[in-house]
Amino acid sequence: MAPRRSTTFARSATDDTIATFASRPSTTQTTYTTASDYSSVTKVKQRAAHAIGNKHSGHWMDLVRPKVTVLPAIALRLLFVTVWSAVVCVFYLVPEVEFLKKAALPNNMILTTVLGVSISLLLGFRTNTAYDRFWEGRRLWGTIRFHSLNMSRLIYVYGKESTSDESLTKAQALQVLSAVSIAVKHRLRNEMERNYIDLNAIEHVQALGNAIETNNLTSDLCSYVHGYLVSTGMSLSPVWGSLSMLQDAVSALERIHDTPIPQAYGIHMKQCVTIYLLSLPFQIVGMLAWFTIPVVLLSAFVMTGLLEISQKIENPFGYDVVDLDTDVYCEEISRDLGSMASREDSGSTLGWNKAFSMEFEKMDRSKKHSKK
Asked: 310-330 b/e with 16+ CB inside 10 Å = b?
């Protein structure tokens, strides 16, 4: 019999995980007597797993969710357009005041079609531009999360920890790294103060923030991490690359925040939509009669709704329901980095190898070739 491989570590994450799961009350104490029972239960679980849908999937109850829809924001505009259409219909269809019928209004849909196509193209471009900014912001937050975790893992494994001061400094560097995303979140919300609960919860960041006199807390925190890497002599290219990519993502988020859609373009878009909606009843009242009112109302709902949505999502870093949930993103990053900083073991005690050196590999290969 082959000798059993030794797997003795100083208290590792595996031990903590096993203890955590062992302390949980078991809710599925099921005994399978036959293979068919196990197979049937497995198939049921697989079907249940595939039945899980997207948590943001649509539902008919979305029609009556005023907190998410833009209907409350455009209600007054819809009311104005409806009243305007009703007035046009009255002055065209009521015999006593039908002076609009005598005005010989154009009774065709050519003008409406031409203007409708042009405005539809403008609305499509406006909405796509706003959604591109929204999606770019989400992608950049994913980049911040990835490189924060990547840097924390490399610092945790390869950071010096021979003395208690070095261990404390490494834990502080991980704390500062987790605070970078929180500082970015407040920066994108135009919150330039430093006495926020989520920042003050990190002790070292609170002390560091009081000592910093500049207004760019995000840059200062990244500089502190940079200084830690220099002081420890960490020359791993991945950790420096992650720091560079992290700062690049922060700069890209600030670019989205500080560069709104040109005001002239937004004003011109509103003017075009308003002119189109106000002139639409005159074009269709002769053909649709009283049905002009609901048709114009529906057109106004679509166009003004798209305009309002594009305005809401073009800067998705605030507190609106449709904005990116940056609080959750920061909590996830802080939780992952905080758990790593609070560990009592290190990369060396877990049996991990040191950084791979390409130079030694090249030297070994050259020696082998020289011997041959």
From this structure: bbbbbbbbeeeeebbebeebb
Spatial distance between the Cα atoms of 78 and 91, rounded to a whole number of angstroms: 20
Judge whether 152 and 337 are in contact, CB under 8 Å.
Answer: yes
Contact 271, 118 (CB under 8 A): no
CA distance 276 to 284: 12
3-class secondary structure, 316: coil
Judge contact between 158 and 355, C-beta under 8 A.
yes
| DSSP assigned state of 60 | G
Higher pLDDT, 371 or 283: 283
Rounded-to-integer distance, Cα 97 and Cα 91, Å: 5
Q: What pTM was estimated for this model as a whole? A: 0.71
**Contact at 8 Å (CB) between 307 and 126?**
yes
CA-to-CA distance for 144 and 330, rounded, in angstroms?
A: 10
Separation CA 176–CA 337 (nearest Å): 10
Q: How far is CA 358 from CA 349, 355, 365, in A?
A: 24, 10, 11
The amino acid that residue 305 corresponds to is: G
Per-residue pLDDT tens for 117-165? Answer: 888 888 998 999 999 999 999 999 999 999 999 988 888 888 777 788 8
Rounded Cα–Cα distance for residues 140 and 132 (Å): 12
pLDDT tens by residue, 180-194: 898 899 889 988 776
On the question of pLDDT at 364 being above 60, the answer is no
* One-letter identity of residue 93: L
- DSSP H helical ranges for the chain: 13-23, 35-51, 71-93, 99-102, 110-158, 164-188, 197-200, 203-211, 217-231, 237-258, 263-288, 292-313, 326-341, 358-371
In sequence order, the 6+-apart residues with CB closer than 8 A to the CB of 284 are 109, 112, 292, 295, 296
End-to-end CA distance of the chain: give it in Å, rounded. 40
